[in-house]
Amino acid sequence: MERERNSFVVNIPISAPPRLDGQIAFVTGAAGGIGSEIVRSFLAAGATVIATDLVEANPFAGEAKVDYHRYDVTSMEATESVVAAVLAKHGRIDSLVLCAGAISNQSLDVASDGEWDRIYKINVMGVVNPLRKIYPLMVEQAYGKIVALGSIAAKIGGVQSGPAYVAAKSAVHGIMKWVAKSGASKGVYANIVAPGPVETPMWEACTDRAPPSPNGNVPLGRYGQPEDIAQGILFLCSPQSNWITGTTLDINGGMLMD
């Protein structure tokens, strides 16, 4: 929509209801606890979802509007292959959700070079590689919405995570700010969702699960659920957020009041 504003022509559309009918959404880490809920939320909003993960068997078998690809986000060769396949079939990518990730709670004196490398490759290059191929496509089509999973850990120095995870997620926050600044004049939006602790298998594997406390660690009195995160991401990929870019949406039950 174009509107006259003080003699300027504003080409960025005005915010609108949260429907994604006819849009193509590309989701990494789609088989995980948060990723699978993102897929369901986008389907409910009318999108066709390109769901990607390392899982061999299609976890969304039977879903007519899910196109599943086994995809290793740490490989640029795999990135080029999957994006080419998606474009050949669907012609465009309207939204990109960068959800693939791995957590580490190893302390500074314990984490090996291999652990730092593993966490960096999955969390940082797992964001950079899809961006390398999909961001230019969005610039060419003059539209796109990108959301990356950051973390409260990047903002407060960790919850129960170690320094490798904190450093990797901090890098993701910085990368996405660059994309937002670069893409703003080209119709491409980039935002971050920074969850607090969310009850998923990945989180449960590296936490002592101290009970949430409304008077202590979690003011809203419970840990997050995948739905809490997915709905925030849907908001940032929908027309409801057409004047939001370069921001971090904190979804953490009040653990960080920024």
Automatic annotation (TrEMBL):
The record's listing under PROSITE patterns reads: ADH_SHORT (PS00061)
What protein name is recorded for this chain? SDR family oxidoreductase
Q: PANTHER family annotated for this entry? A: DEHYDROGENASES, SHORT CHAIN (PTHR24321), ESTRADIOL 17-BETA-DEHYDROGENASE 8-RELATED (PTHR24321:SF8)
Q: Does the keyword Oxidoreductase apply?
A: yes
Classify the source by domain of life. Answer: Bacteria
UniProt family annotation: Belongs to the short-chain dehydrogenases/reductases (SDR) family.
In terms of Pfam families, this protein maps to: adh_short_C2
Q: Which UniProt keywords apply?
A: Oxidoreductase
Q: Which SUPFAM superfamilies does the entry mention? A: NAD(P)-binding Rossmann-fold domains
